[in-house]
Amino acid sequence: MDERVPRDFETLRTTILERRQSLPKRIAQIAAYALDNPDDIAFGTAASIAASAGVQPSTLIRFAQQLGFDGFTSLQLVFRERLRERNSSYDERLAALRAKAEEGAGHRAIFDGFVAAASTSLNDISGRLNEDHFEAAITLLAKAETIYVLAKRRSYPVASYIAYALGKLKIRNQLIESAAGLNAEMISFASPRDAVIAISFSPYAPATIEEARVISEQRVPIVAITDSSFSPLAQFAKVWFEVAEADFAGFRSLSATMALAMALTVAVGEKRRDTAGKRKA
């Protein structure tokens, strides 16, 4: 194997992110799927992976060769090694809980399953949080005149909490929602002196993506919370965070997302308080 070929998952991930803008459309499609579903890539067949990603099996081979591998099987070994290296205690626990639930272990197994999934999500974001990005987001939001909060569907509870907490901290904010359909009018007031927190996960809410696009065209800086480097939100964001939420029985929690949202909100409040204190001094 060529020395320049990625030999571990993190190097592979970095390589894909560096090349994402230049990848052909179908290659970029499977690249996004691979980063979002690494476990499926590790153990799926070429046919099953291609079907799930919506591409032809030959695209997998082209994807692997684009990264320097001699074939898809060689690329797949990197994804399998990731699973072997990862601390799998919570993953094993989730698998056991799923089995218990399927065996009729009762409703307690469902509760335990969601607790284990939440723990997995929190451990993951704790280990992956980029501190420089975190500080940059805090600085950006702390100097905003108004913080707009944008989210729909599954992400909406997080947006609602952020708006509530910002209000309690006496920070001017606007949750972009309107029963009268006035979202566009709300967004029109946002200026480069403001900032936006936008949240969306796959399958991305079309309204969130469209409103984020409009806001970015108004040169309003965006802090995005999403689940993939290929998320359409990432392209509009000044700073963005990738949050991977574990699921139980197909239901994803918002534990890691809520923890990040709480930390950002409180840290912004502290930053503004410190800045105000220095001005008085």
Describe the main β-sheet briefly.
5 strands, parallel
Rg is 21 Å
Mean pLDDT: 86
Helix content: 55-70%
Helix/strand order, N-terminal first: HHHHHHHHHEHEHEHEEEEH
Q: Count the E strands.
A: 7
Shape designation: globular
Please, how many helices?
13
Structural class, from secondary structure content? alpha/beta
> Runs with pLDDT <50, length 5+?
none
Strand order of the largest sheet: 2-1-3-4-5
Q: Determine the CATH topology of the largest domain.
A: Rossmann fold
Overview features:
281 residues, Arc Repressor Mutant, subunit A, Rossmann fold, five-stranded parallel β-sheet, two-stranded antiparallel sheet, 59% helix, 9% strand, transcription, RpiR-like_SIS
What does the model show?
The chain is 59% helix and 9% strand. The protein has 2 domains: 77 residues, Orthogonal Bundle (Arc Repressor Mutant, subunit A), CATH 1.10.10; 153 residues, Rossmann fold. Helix 7 packs antiparallel against helix 8. It has 13 helices and 7 strands. Keywords: DNA-binding, Transcription, Transcription regulation.
Summarize it.
This protein is an alpha/beta fold. It has 13 helices and 7 strands.
Give the helices and strands, then pairings.
Elements lengths: L8 H11 L5 H12 L1 H6 L2 H8 L3 H10 L5 H14 L3 H14 L4 H22 L2 H12 L4 E5 L4 H13 L4 E3 L7 H6 L6 E5 L6 H12 L4 E5 L12 E4 L4 E2 L2 E2 L2 H26 L1
Parallel strand pairs: 1-2, 1-3, 3-4, 4-5
Antiparallel strand pairs: 6-7
Helix pairs in contact: 2-5, 7-8, 8-13, 9-13, 10-13
Pfam families: HTH_6 (PF01418), SIS (PF01380)
InterPro entries: Homeodomain-like_sf, HTH_RpiR, RpiR-like, RpiR-like_SIS, SIS_dom, SIS_dom_sf, WH-like_DNA-bd_sf
Keywords: DNA-binding, Transcription, Transcription regulation
